[in-house]
Design brief:
The complex is a heterodimer. Chain A is an all-alpha fold. Chain A has a single domain, classed as Non-ribosomal Peptide Synthetase Peptidyl Carrier Protein, Chain A (Orthogonal Bundle), CATH 1.10.1200.10. Chain A is built from four helices and no strands. In chain A, helix 1 packs across helix 2. By secondary structure, chain B is mainly α. Chain B contains 18 helices and no strands. The chains are: A mainly alpha, B mainly alpha. The interface between A and B is medium-sized, with 15 and 22 residues.
Chain lengths: 76, 441
């Protein structure tokens, strides 16, 4: 398993853990459009990425990570 | 200088526009210095004494940002960032809140400390937030500051200087540097002028006429009846929207003449079917600032990031927003009520038991927003409570009024309601135009 696949899987697990349900289509997930993805969940996701993937996400980047795609792009 | 004044529309704007593009066409000059001096002139038109204040702020923050960018040590960097933010808040606080604090202290301790009667420099609230965001972006390595010229232009560019939208460095300066934006773009001019006209119409025809009943109602809050109190409050809700969004339209249109696209600040807020949605379409750049630079960082810094903490911080953020609007209890109550409203909205969403249909959601939202704006408009709390008392029938339920004796005013009300609730807004014009541009490319 390559690194990018590993990151994707970890991100997907984090999403399912924070949203507390199984997600079928990750590509569709968008901040403020996906029902469960509100500002609280957004910060919970950011903190979980930092903790579980060992990355540091800047204040200025938090507002940019507004979809699953953008998050994957950012983390890769 | 006001956007709807003749001096701005017929003299200032055309002169700066002509000089800017002449400079860019016939010389190697990028026109930035011209725009900076035009901004200073525009700003000083109200009161020349304010000019040193904005220049001091620009110089101070430019050097702070330089230090932030150049210092390697993380702890030092953070210390400078926080000191910079602190100085900006104090700078704003001294001018905006000193007299308010003294008046309150006098009231509390029955003392007689004299107020300073400090004049409040225009635009300061806006450029303070803009500067704070900029310093944080410098700290994060987001902004690679190059010159004092760029930084000054970012703060002093006249269309957004006085009342927003609150812009970000990385969204603005690249637009000035782009070679595509170097020469006159007739389509941008047409679009810009159309948007200026729309803004002018909103301000002069709608907002200014709506203000007639608003002023009368608030000045006579003790004697107006049930119907008149409702008309007064709703008139102000629409007046504020057309005044502010009209102003933003004129700012957006003016900037477009220079091929600069400002961010959206309003998106038909009175169509919102919940308070959460209302804040996604009302003063958008302020809300984004509050979210990204206050709400998110505080929430992130907590050990427990749960619903209750998030709601508590929402309340704090909206109280801050109320205080930011101005030194009065009316603004603080306005902010607090919005914080509470959002907590209720989020709580209902979370427990997910009560589903209300869209129409009821819309009605609740606009009525609640209207109620909070009474505090936004009032000169003292007595008048706000006076209006509210009449609205709940304290003075009876009389339904007669001579508020509409003038037929033109009826026309203004019909237009105001229709435009807010059924029309598309300028974002539609802009998005459509740029979509077409993309397709052509």
């Amino acid at each position: 398993m390559n690194n990018s696949q590993e990151i994707k899987e970890k991100v997907q697990k984090i999403f399912e853990k924070i949203f507390k349900n199984k997600i079928n289509n990750f590509e569709k997930l968008e901040f403020n459009k996906t029902k469960k993805w509100d500002s609280l969940k957004h910060i919970q996701l950011i903190v979980a990425f930092e903790k579980e993937l060992g990355v540091k996400i800047n204040t200025s980047d938090v507002e940019k990570l507004t979809s699953y795609r953008k998050i994957i792009q950012y983390l890769l | 200088m006001l956007f709807h004044s003749l001096i701005y529309l017929l003299l200032f704007l055309p002169s700066v526009f002509t000089l800017y593009f002449l400079l860019r066409k016939f010389t190697n000059n990028d026109g930035k210095i011209l725009l900076i001096f035009s901004g200073i002139f525009f700003y000083g038109w109200w009161n020349v004494k304010f000019i040193p204040l904005i220049i001091c702020s620009v110089l101070f923050n430019y050097y702070v940002s330089k230090i932030i960018v150049n210092v390697e040590n993380k702890r030092k960097k953070k210390l400078i960032l926080f000191s910079g933010i602190f100085c900006n808040i104090i700078y704003l606080g001294v001018f905006k809140y000193t007299d308010f604090i003294i008046t309150n202290l006098n009231y509390l301790f029955q003392s007689n400390i004299e107020t300073f009667d400090l004049p409040f420099p225009l635009a300061m609230s806006f450029f303070t937030f803009q500067t704070i965001a900029y310093l944080v972006d410098c700290y994060d390595g987001e902004v690679k500051i190059k010159s004092l010229k760029d930084y000054s232009l970012f703060i002093i560019f006249f269309p957004q200087l006085i009342a927003g939208p609150i812009v970000k460095f990385n969204n603005m300066i690249p637009q000035f540097n782009s070679s595509e934006n170097k020469s006159i773009n007739t389509k941008n001019i047409l679009l810009g002028l159309t948007i200026i006209l729309i803004g002018l119409f909103k301000k002069v025809i709608l907002a200014d006429n709506l203000s007639i009943n608003v002023d009368y109602g608030f000045n006579n809050f003790e004697s107006i009846n049930f119907l008149e109190s409702w008309i007064t409050s709703f008139s102000f809700t629409f007046q504020l929207y057309f005044d502010f969004s009209g102003y933003i339209d004129m700012a957006t249109g003016s900037a477009l003449l220079f091929n600069i696209l400002l961010p959206k600040n309003f998106d038909s807020p009175f169509k919102a079917t919940s308070l959460i949605n209302f804040w996604k379409s009302w003063h958008i750049t302020l809300f984004n600032f509050l979210m990204n630079y206050i709400y998110f960082p505080i929430l992130r810094s907590l050990r427990k990031i749960n619903f209750i903490n998030a709601m508590f911080i929402t309340l704090i953020v909206f109280i801050i927003s109320g205080i930011w609007h101005g030194p009065s209890y009316g603004y603080i109550i306005f902010g607090t009520l919005h914080g509470i409203g959002l907590i209720v909205n989020h709580t209902f969403n979370k427990i997910d038991i009560l589903k209300i249909n869209k129409f009821l959601g819309w009605l609740l939202t606009i009525t609640y927003v209207n109620f909070t704006l009474i505090f936004f408009r009032c000169e003292n709390l007595e008048s706000a409570f006076g209006i509210i008392k009449s609205m709940v029938g304290h003075n009876g339920f009389e339904l007669s009024t001579n508020f509409f004796d003038d037929y033109f005013l009826i026309f203004v009300y019909i237009l105001s309601i229709s435009i807010s609730l059924f029309f598309k807004n300028i974002n539609y014009l802009i998005d459509n135009y740029y979509e077409n541009q993309e397709i052509k490319k």
